[in-house]
Amino acid sequence: MLESRNINVHYGKLHVIHDVSFRIEERELVSIIGANGAGKSTIINALTGLKKISSGEVFFLDTHIENLKSSAIVNLGIVQVPEGRQIFPQMTVWENIEMGAYRNQARARWKETLRSVFDLFPVLRDRRKQMGGSLSGGEQQMLAIARGLMAIPRVIILDEPSLGLAPLIVEGIFKTIARLKEGGTTVLMVEQNVFRSLSIADRAYVLEEGKITLSGRGKELLGNEYIRQAYLGL
Q: Is residue 56 assigned to a domain?
């Protein structure tokens, strides 16, 4: 469904992503794991048009998208939930959620989608009149995901969804992500929480210093000796 082929990304003269190739099939949950600074966010910013790639190709349903603007990529159905949530703190929960329904397809079905979003995150229904900035960190992450889902994404890309959250809240966020996949949503997630990420992923890629160094089924990688030592401290 979504594929990168040998993409390279530079910041000025600094070469940060090196010939990275990976794929996501429809209805899969694919994780890209790696340490802070490995280049995970740069990759997804390149996929969504927020960062220009230096060379390589990106395909969505066999169509080249590497030269498209981010707005055009969103209209195709590739939606990013950014690192740090990036909600609108001075707008209500309801207004934040409405902001997600900007695609034509989404506007036509926003009432139906809103019901499913509130079923997934009932706390947001209860707090729909509150300002987004008054929510807890976990609730803001729910709001950011809900806003992304309002666009009716064909692929939803989650950038560090557990960042800065308490362990109990992290557990709930990952359960929600697993439910999205079970409901048929195609998910690409970049995440530092290696154990949680691999536990729910169909497949995963390990990114180190801008290069894919390992890939495989999520639960198989959990048993990989290198992963256990380098990332899980076992």
A: no
Straight-line distance from the first to the last Cα atom of the chain, in angstroms, rounded to the nearest whole number:
35
Residue 103 DSSP code: S
Question: CA 9 → CA 51, 52, 139, distances in Å?
Answer: 8, 7, 33
In a domain, 144, yes or no: yes
Q: Which domain holds residue 176?
A: 25-51+69-230
Two structure tokens written together for 181: 């996949």
Determine, yes or no, domain membership for 92.
Answer: yes
Q: Is 3 within a domain?
A: no
Among residues 70, 53, 65, 58, which one has the least CA distance to residue 15?
53
Structure confidence by residue, pLDDT tens digits, 112-164: 899 999 999 999 999 999 999 999 999 999 999 999 999 999 999 999 998 88
Compute the distance between CA of residue 198 and CA of residue 191 in angstroms, rounded to an integer. Answer: 10
CA–CA separation, 86 and 142 (whole Å):
12
Tokens 């036509």 belong to which residue? 108
Q: Rounded to whole angstroms, how far apart are CA atoms 29 and 180?
A: 9
**Total structural domains in the chain?**
1
